[in-house]
């Protein structure tokens, strides 16, 4: 049986896969079963920050595999402690809880907000405000946080205590903050899954001011836009705000599962012994990979991300067949005049992998994609969009 048939027979039906079986890759080039090469503008949904098989990343990960692979969180390990130090020193935050995914990182952020508010203001201050059209994960609690009804329909009852306000509508946020006893407000500064919607600066600053004034825990979900993708180390830095908590995952270890909930001064000691835990969280191989990844996200790389972003935006804005270009850094959304699925399939046929998000073509290339490959891929995309 070929792999596609096997997959359809034995893997749960949750994913509508593109008709491509990937067998290998190098950098931003991936190869399918037939030996066809593609330029990858998706990077495994923002995970492969340095593309496929990056040598420095491989060396860090394989080096740790040769030492030991796992200890459990009952023991101290150097990669975990050093990565936590690095995350704090690069952001000014104070402590880190490690998990395995974005959803878990958000669950921890929500627990922190609820415990902080319960202790500070009382047990009825448990509601978390999130935005319509957001995406925060697939667990029942992070689904409740996700402000998109179509994800909720078949899984009721979800965790109670979530309320959604309209993105980029500060008066709606202020109204709902008055009507509910809030523990926290959680935002993605660019709503990735929701269609690459960038939050406006006044809106984000307004939320930060509200959180400060009312002592509400401000959580930034940096799972997709974080780790250099915005052209800043974390997306919130673009706005000049400081969250109390940020969560991240996807690109953090550039290809292995690692989630992190990063705590600022206000909440650094909210979690005590036994308040959270994870068997795999902070795995030494993943942490060694993340140390390598984060140590390369310096000013030079971030400037490169911004320059590549500018190239894509300038090339596609106003191009034939393009309604609009949105996003930040190397998380960009192209609203096509033609049907989005058709555009994506024609790109794949032409040798370029792109993703979708709410009717837009979503681009999430590796941060280090060579300019020559990016140029070639964007020209193909431009031609497909113009058909
Ligand atoms: C992908 C994503 C998540 C969920 O991450 P998982 O690792 O799939 O659990 C949460 N928030 C945002 C913004 C995401 O893009």
From TrEMBL:
GO terms for biological process: L-arginine biosynthetic process. This is Acetylornithine/succinylornithine family transaminase. Belongs to the class-III pyridoxal-phosphate-dependent aminotransferase family. It comes from Candidatus Avoscillospira avicola. Keywords: Amino-acid biosynthesis, Aminotransferase, Pyridoxal phosphate, Transferase. Pathway: Amino-acid biosynthesis. Pfam families: Aminotran_3. PANTHER family: ACETYLORNITHINE AMINOTRANSFERASE, MITOCHONDRIAL, AMINOTRANSFERASE CLASS III. It comes from the Bacteria. Gene3D superfamilies: Aspartate Aminotransferase, domain 1, Type I PLP-dependent aspartate aminotransferase-like (Major domain). One of its GO terms (molecular function) is transaminase activity. Its cofactor is pyridoxal 5'-phosphate.
């Amino acid at each position: 049986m070929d792999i596609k048939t096997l997959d359809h027979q034995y893997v749960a039906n949750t994913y509508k896969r593109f008709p491509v079986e990937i067998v290998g890759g190098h950098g931003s080039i991936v190869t399918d079963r037939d030996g066809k090469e593609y330029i990858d503008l998706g990077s495994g949904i923002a995970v492969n920050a340095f593309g496929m098989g990056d040598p420095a990343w491989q060396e860090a990960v394989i080096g740790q595999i040769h030492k030991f692979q796992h200890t459990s969180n009952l023991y101290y390990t150097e990669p975990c402690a050093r990565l936590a130090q690095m995350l704090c020193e690069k952001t000014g935050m104070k402590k880190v809880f490690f998990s395995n995914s974005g959803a878990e990182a958000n669950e921890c952020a929500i627990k922190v907000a609820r415990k902080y508010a319960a202790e500070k203001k009382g047990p009825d201050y448990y509601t978390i405000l999130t935005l319509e059209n957001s995406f925060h994960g697939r667990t029942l609690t992070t689904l409740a946080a996700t402000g998109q009804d179509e994800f909720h329909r078949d899984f009721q009852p979800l965790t109670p205590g979530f309320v959604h306000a309209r993105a980029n509508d500060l008066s709606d946020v202020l109204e709902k903050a008055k009507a509910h006893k809030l523990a926290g407000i959680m935002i993605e500064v660019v709503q990735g899954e929701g269609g690459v919607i960038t939050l406006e600066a006044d809106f984000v600053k307004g939320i930060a001011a509200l959180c400060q004034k009312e002592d509400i825990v401000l959580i930034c979900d940096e799972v997709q836009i974080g780790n250099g993708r915005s052209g800043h180390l974390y997306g919130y830095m673009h706005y000049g705000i400081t969250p109390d908590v940020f969560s991240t995952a996807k690109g953090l270890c550039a290809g292995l599962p690692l989630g992190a909930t990063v705590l600022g001064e206000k909440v650094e000691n909210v979690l005590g012994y036994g308040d959270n835990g994870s068997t795999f969280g902070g795995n030494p191989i993943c942490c060694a990979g993340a140390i390598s990844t984060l140590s390369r996200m310096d000013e030079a790389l971030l400037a490169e991300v911004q320059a590549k972003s500018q190239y894509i935006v300038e090339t596609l804005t106003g191009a034939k067949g393009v309604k609009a270009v949105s996003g930040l850094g190397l998380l960009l959304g192209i609203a096509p005049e033609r049907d989005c699925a058709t555009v994506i399939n024609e790109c794949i046929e032409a040798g370029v992998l792109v993703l979708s998000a709410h009717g837009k073509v979503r681009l999430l290339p590796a941060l280090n994609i060579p300019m020559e490959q990016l140029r070639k891929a964007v020209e193909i995309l431009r031609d497909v969009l113009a058909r």
